[in-house]
Amino acid sequence: MNLLSDFSGLKAPTGVSDNVFNAKTIQDYSFAKIGINIFSFPVILIRSKNDGTFLNCKNIRLKYLELAHNVECKITEMSKNKLDFYSVVVFRSENQNLLSYFLGVSEILIRSLSKEPTQKEILNHFENFIEVFHSISDSPQKSLQGLWAELFLIAISKSPENLINYWHTNPQEKFDFNAATEKLEVKSSSNLERIHTFSSEQLNPQNNSQIIIASIFTKQNPKGKNIEELIEGIKKKLNSSETEERLYNIISKTLGNSIEQSLKVKYDYEIAINSLRYYDVSNISKIEKINIPYNVTEVRYKSNLSESDFIEHTRLKEYGQFYESI
């Protein structure tokens, strides 16, 4: 399935009705079509078995997205016209990076449905789909640089699926990847100095936890890779739609309404590869927790890792089972 390629081959229909589309049936998914409306916006059309679920459904309108169920549509495909009822998703943006992002999420939605989906099934699956695009109306929760570094680490890992499963659902969590007692925090630097800001909790393990810090240099470069390219590389290594869905969900929550500009920014991939180092927090200079008064909280400070001993990648597995995935 390549919705971007299929959409590129469509021409906008003529007319005045919002529910007139030129479309193409998606290969291996006869219930779904990729279409284009009179405004040249992409449209996903999904046919379902009527079970009465859509009777009380309201239309949804978000910043970039419109969704309506049980809409009578006039479809032109291969010079033939047909009237039928569909769930209709319209993506309203001319930004090419965001278009690719939308179609990537749409592919997950389509693959997750059965061959003859009911209205109830479609409504259930649309919940997460809508959440992805609802999040991009909110304020960003983390810097683009930080997110790129995390995605970079996932992209080059042995098991991206495992890392995504332990990836923070809330970008404000203390650790980027949390596998119970094994934790991984990713720190990035744009000035090519290995000086990072830490919270006290990130450098002072609790309950026999093992904490590894990944340190990466991230320098913007127009010839580098953007988030969209990292996503495509990661998706090729994933085995489940649920994991892909989680990937898009976290990205949307993290970038919020900055996503349109963020998707096109590129960082130097070679610098990131060559600079990546792993550190056991026991080897990082820090303020020991015992020296922080009990009534002082949210302590943050910078620590220079340039003279700290780092862990060779081949030895990470010695620190815990989760680290074998990196």
Concise synopsis of the structure shown:
With 326 residues, the protein is an alpha+beta fold. The protein is built from 10 helices and 14 strands.
Number of strands: 14
What strand line-up does the widest sheet have?
1-2-3-6-5
N→C terminal distance: 29 Å
Helical proportion, percent range: 25-40%
Layout of secondary structure:
Elements: H1 3-8, E1 20-26, E2 29-36, E3 42-46, E4 60-61, E5 65-77, E6 80-91, H2 96-112, H3 119-135, H4 144-156, H5 160-165, E7 177-179, E8 182-189, E9 195-199, H6 200-203, E10 210-217, E11 220-226, H7 227-235, H8 241-255, H9 259-262, E12 266-267, H10 269-275, E13 277-280, E14 300-304
Parallel strand pairs: 1-5, 8-10
Antiparallel strand pairs: 1-2, 2-3, 3-6, 4-5, 5-6, 7-8, 9-14, 10-13, 11-12
Helix pairs in contact: 2-3, 2-8, 3-8, 4-7
Structural account:
The chain has 326 residues and is an alpha+beta fold. 30% of the residues lie in helices and 27% in strands. The chain contains ten helices and 14 strands. It has helices at residues 3-8, 96-112, 119-135, 144-156, 160-165, 200-203, 227-235, 241-255, 259-262, 269-275, and strands spanning 20-26, 29-36, 42-46, 60-61, 65-77, 80-91, 177-179, 182-189, 195-199, 210-217, 220-226, 266-267, 277-280, 300-304. The protein has a five-stranded mixed beta barrel with strand order 1-2-3-6-5. α4 (144-156) packs parallel to α7 (227-235). It starts with a helix and ends in a 22-residue tail after the last strand.
